[in-house]
Amino acid sequence: MSTNFDALLxxxxxxxxxxxxVACAQDEPVLEAVRAxxxxxxxxxxxxxxxxxxxxxxxxxxxxxxxYEIIHEADDYAAALKAVSLVKDGKADMYMKGLIDxxxxxxxxxxxxxxxxxxxxxxxVCVFDIKGMDKLLFLTDVAFMTYPTLEDKVHIIENTxxxxxxxxxxxxxxxxxxxxxxxxxxxxxxxxxxxxxxxxDEGIIKNCIVDGPLSLxxxxxxxxxxxxxxxxRKIVGDADVLLFPDIHAGNLVYKCLxxxxxxxxxxxxxxxxxxxxxxxxxxxFETKVNSIALGAVVAESLNK
Length: 304
Fold this sequence. Notes:
By secondary structure, the protein is an alpha/beta fold. The protein has two domains: 5-117 and 272-302, Rossmann fold; 123-260, Isopropylmalate Dehydrogenase (3-Layer(aba) Sandwich), CATH 3.40.718. It has helices at residues 5-10, 28-39, 51-60, 76-88, 102-109, 150-166, 188-201, 216-220, 222-227, 247-260, 285-302; strands at residues 18-23, 43-49, 69-72, 94-97, 123-130, 136-140, 173-176, 209-210, 241-243, 263-270, 276-277. Strands 8-7-9-6-5-10 form a six-stranded mixed sheet. α2 (28-39) packs across α11 and α4 runs parallel beside α5 (102-109). The protein is elongated, with a radius of gyration of 20 Å. It starts with a helix and ends with a helix. The relative contact order is 0.17. The mean pLDDT is 92.
């Protein structure tokens, strides 16, 4: 079981180095992350995009491109289709967003001919290594699904359990979050959380433990659970997965952690045939490298 990102990286020492196909690689932060991932033996890369610009940026950061495969395509969307097809054809293990708008990148992921669609909804998972916690914490969905329905939440849980398993967390504890920990018909989020719990009890949602609704403190703080008399719950401050009611709640918690706590984190898009690395331009260098590492861990798990 991986308890932090260092342990997660150690998992990669026992497997072959993975390869990431980058769409529109003419982006300095992405090239820096790709170089670091290679130096740390996390993953190699195929750079697809405007080759003159890629070489210009690489020269400005003193990056040696002699051992990288570069595929020239000046048109952004055409470059994305070429990059994602490399993953579809098994020439790369994961797909990463470079200097291309998110809408076009996702369109390439879902392309019927060369994309990575599975037929299931996509969702986003953030894996956090937070100082003071002795386990990885999985947040979902903070960046993709805006207002997930009950059915969407079932898929989000299934997608996230797969990521947990790849990271060595088996039978993860999933906390559907709400402002309160009791069912209130006037608060639909609590009703849906209770439905998810019932579906887990009935074996419809498998390979995890679901207990909701839960307030955030009951989900992650054992002392709060003790003081509130919640010892009888399936989750008593020891959740592995925080399932957010909507993108607003998830995004606020994500940014609060990133900007106020001492953390390491990586982000990945799930529900696809292969790992898709979708980071924000505001994500720092280490987050991009960690996201490539997370993708490599998931790719290794999918290959077994």
